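Entry type: protein chain
Record version: 2
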Amino acid sequence: MSSIKNHVQLIGNVGVEPTITNLESGKKVARLSLATNENYKNGNGEKQTDTNWHTVVAWGKVADIIEKFVDKGKEIGIVGKLKTRTYTMDDGNQRYVTEVVADEILLMGNK
């Protein structure tokens, strides 16, 4: 059962062009925002869509695939885990960020 702890699967559309960063260590990191939609009917029977935005971070080979094949609007599937990190702003306030760290990517059709 340990393989299903902290396991995330998302299918959605890329919201902005991914940013690719080559670090001094030689590692590559890709960052993108992913929109997932949930459709449902409200109490009046009208179709509604609830959109959630996710920050996705990918390293190494997955970052290479994103750099070569993923653009804004592309539908992709992501498998990974959630990671929360903290940082301190210039004003001294501490911020928390939760991201999806992608281990695998599935390239799907365009919307």
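Comment: The first strand starts at residue 8 and ends at 14.
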